[in-house]
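step 4 of 6: structure.
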Amino acid sequence: MNILITGGAGFIASAIVRQLVREGRGLVVNVDKLTYAADLTRLADCAGSHHYQFVQADVCDRKIMQQVMNEYNIDAVIHAAAETHVDRSIESPEKFLRSNVAGTYHMLEVVRDYFTKLTEVKKKQFRFLQISTDEVYGDLDGLERADESSPYRPSSPYAASKAAADHFTRSWARTYGIPVLVTHSSNNYGPGQNEEKLIPKVISNALAQKSIPIFGTGSQVRDWIYVDDNARAVINVLDHGKIGESYNISTGDEVENIHLVSQLCEVLDNFVRSSEKSEVRKYHQLIEYVDDRAGHDVRYAMNAGKISQLGWKPKLSLEQGLRMTVKSFLKNFKTQ
Ligand SMILES: NC(=O)c1ccc[n+]([C@@H]2O[C@H](COP(=O)([O-])OP(=O)(O)OC[C@H]3O[C@@H](n4cnc5c(N)ncnc54)[C@H](O)[C@@H]3O)[C@@H](O)[C@H]2O)c1
């Protein structure tokens, strides 16, 4: 099976690429524009593999995307390319409209053209998997958890752009018969994540003994998933998901941001002996509350019962995942 993955040099998609290449699946073609968020060193282990091919391109460039689909006889597309940082979407939403909404539209059009020319046998195998987020469901009250049929209530320009892309995807299934799947993941974390995201930012600020900013009161609730657990889930949906269906991917471990950051500081405290720290004894002393993000959602929570029926469950607890992340960060920090 030849798989095209867009945005494969990004944090999440690179974990999916690594897993697919490790499994020795046909050919994995990674198309990435290489924005500031990309990092090809995440794929250093795949670079020499005959199961892996990299193409630098923008998903909005239909001509190139068409060529790639034809040249590599693609059997499935995992569409992960996107602008992903919520704060950036608040400052300059247009890029999100372009890459996330128009980018998905162009990919769907390329796929539509390609799909109609496939043989009936190939059509049966073909999939377009749209990588989406829990943020499309918006703020959830109390104990409510979004399931796959919950209404979309996106709050940030980022979430709105992902919601629009999901709607385009489903409409291409209904109108043109494209076999689509949609996954909604909760907050991913793990080694190699861009430092603008919460967990790597906390680690790097703590190690540099800079203040650790917490938006508002830090009471926002999120559900964190280790990036390799998420990658296994996405691949599971690609292999076993029912055409036209959506799947939530989460651990169900809800935690307030302030508790997450405190737990992370504790993990760091245990790794870095006090004697190695110049001024601060405990990292949590660096926590500083800053003005809340505009329109910040208070709580995201999803029910992941549907994907568990496909046989997926997370392997790592938050504690284990945070330890792995800190360990890897420290290794790179020391070798810099
Ligand atoms: N980070 C999370 O916690 C999270 C949670 C749920 C869903 N998602 C979704 O998962 C996907 C990956 O997220 P991430 O955080 O790993 O992203 P990332 O920001 O780490 O990487 C995104 C990648 O997409 C590429 N890209 C951006 N625009 C492109 C374009 N127009 N053409 C080609 N490539 C382009 C970038 O170069 C980059 O390599 C996104 O679709 C995101 O919405 C992320």
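step 5 of 6: annotate
 - The chain has one domain: 3-194+224-253+299-315.
 - DSSP finds eleven helices and twelve strands in the chain.
step 6 of 6: archive
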